[in-house]
Amino acid sequence: MTIQKTFASALFATIILIACANSEKNPVTETPKEWITLFNGKDINDWFVKIHHHETGVNFGNTFRAENGLLKVRYDQYDQFNEQYGHLYYKQPFSHFHLKFQYRFVGEWRKDAPSYTILNSGVMYHSQDPRTMPKEQDWPISIEMQLLGGLDDGKPRTTGNMCSPGTHIEYEGKLDTRHCINSTSKTYRGEQWVNAELIVLGDSLITHIINGDTVMRYAKPSIGGEVVNRFDPEQKKDGKPLKEGFIAFQSEGQPIDFRNIVLQDLSPVKRK
User: Fold this and answer.
1) Range of the domain at 93
2) What is the chain's pLDDT, residue by residue, as a tens digit (272 residues)?
3) H/E/C letters for each residue in the chain?
4) In-domain check, residue 270
5) Residue 272 located in a structural domain
6) pTM (2 decimals)?
7) Which is it for strands 174-176 and 167-171: parallel, antiparallel or unpaired?
8) How far apart are CA 258 and CA 248, in angstroms?
9) Do residues 110 and 17 share a domain?
10) Cα 227 from Cα 180, distance rounded (Å)
11) Among residues 145, 167, 149, 166, which one has the least CA distance to residue 158?
C-alpha cells in the first residue's frame, strides 16, 4: 500500500469516528410522517357524528354525507332546525398536526337557524371525545377555526377566525377570554373554494392559514370559559391545558362542502 493510500484510509477512518461521535450528541430524528387522507370521498365510516338533541352516532336527517367525492353538510331532511348543531369527528385524536382542507359555502341558509350562522361553519380541534357528550350538550369543549363567507352587505368579513367553546387561549402574549377573535384574512364571497390550513403544536403555538396567507396565531389553549352547555362536569376541568383531542367539521344551519381533507402528524418524533 502506498503512503498516499495509507493516509487516505486513515483520514476516512477519522471522519467516520467524528461523524459517529457527533451523531451521539445530536441524534438523527425520523423523517416527517406522510400525509394521510382523513376523508376518502366515498363514505364517513371513519367518523363519529354528534348532533345536539341526539345521541352520539345518530346522523339525524343525513346531515353529514359523502357525495361525488365531497363531504357535504345538508338540511333537506329537516322539518325544523331546532338548534340541532352538529359535528362530524374523525375517529382518532391528534396532538401535533398540520391539517389541510378546502371548503365552499353553497345553497340556502336555514332561516330558522340563529342569524349568526348564515355563511358560518368551522373546524373544531382538541375537542373532547364525542362519546363523552350528553345528548343535550350543544357544543363540544374545543377550539374552533371558524369559517365565514362574505355577506351581501359588502362589509369585510374575515374567515379563519378563532372561537373557543368552553376554552381559553393566549393571544398576543396574554390570556384572552373573548369567545371569538377575528383573523386578518380577506373576505371570500359566493361559492368559491377556499384553501384552509391549521397547524397545531399541542398546547403550544397554533397557526391559521387561508389561501396561503397566515391570518392568525395564538397559543396555550386550555379548558375554561362558557359558550358550552349541559356538559358532564367531569369533562370540564377549567385551567387544564388542551394538549390533544379530536378534529370535527361543523354543522350550524348553512350548507357547506369540504374536500381534500388531509393531515400530517407532527408529533415529536422518536430519536434513533
Assistant:
1) 31-265
2) 443 433 334 333 433 333 333 433 333 345 568 999 999 999 999 999 999 999 999 999 999 999 999 999 999 999 999 999 999 999 999 999 999 999 999 999 999 999 999 999 999 999 999 999 999 999 999 999 999 999 999 999 999 999 999 999 999 999 999 999 999 999 999 999 999 999 999 999 999 999 999 999 999 999 998 999 999 999 999 999 999 999 999 999 999 999 999 999 999 765 44
3) CCHHHHHHHHHHHHHHHHHHHHHHHCCCECCCCCEEECCCCCCCCCEEEEECCCCCCCCHHHCEEEECCEEEECCCCCCCCCCCCEEEEECCCECEEEEEEEEEECCCCCCCCCHHHCCEEEEEEEECCHHHCCCCCCCCCCEEEEEECCCCCCCCCCCCEEECCCEEEEECCEEECCCEECCCCCCCCCCCCEEEEEEEECCCEEEEEECCEEEEEEEEEEECCCCCCCCCHHHCCCCCECCCEEEEEEECCCCEEEEEEEEEECCCCCEC
4) no
5) no
6) 0.86
7) antiparallel
8) 12
9) no
10) 11
11) 149
137 and 236 share a domain?
yes
C-alpha angle with apex 105: 119 to 127, nearest 5 degrees?
75
The neighbour count for residue 45, using CB atoms within 10 Å, is 8
CB atoms within 10 A of CB 167: 28
